[in-house]
Amino acid sequence: MPELLNHRILLLVISFFIGLQGTKVLSKWKKCGDRECETAMSSVQATRDYSGPDCRYLNFKTGEEIMVYSKLSREHENLWAGS
């Protein structure tokens, strides 16, 4: 029984680390409108249509208004968080 418990714990630890590897950090640095990045820092208008590669990215059409809550800096300055 203790051996089975050890195997389960080992599988849990391995699963945890595999899950962490799949989580990519886009940037360690970002600029926000406030400390919690909850207040919009600007409002922008889309100049072209965009369809993101996955659900983490905002899809928008030309002319739509987008509220910007944060902007990544250093590695990916072209990525902003908005709604």
Automatic annotation (TrEMBL):
GO terms for biological process: endoplasmic reticulum to Golgi vesicle-mediated transport; protein secretion; vesicle cargo loading. Pfam families: SH3_2. Residues 39-83 form the SH3 domain. Residues 1-22 form the signal peptide. It is a single-pass membrane protein. GO terms for cellular component: endoplasmic reticulum exit site; endoplasmic reticulum membrane. It is found in: Endoplasmic reticulum membrane. Keywords: Coiled coil, Endoplasmic reticulum, Glycoprotein, SH3 domain, Signal. The keyword Coiled coil applies. This is MIA2 protein.
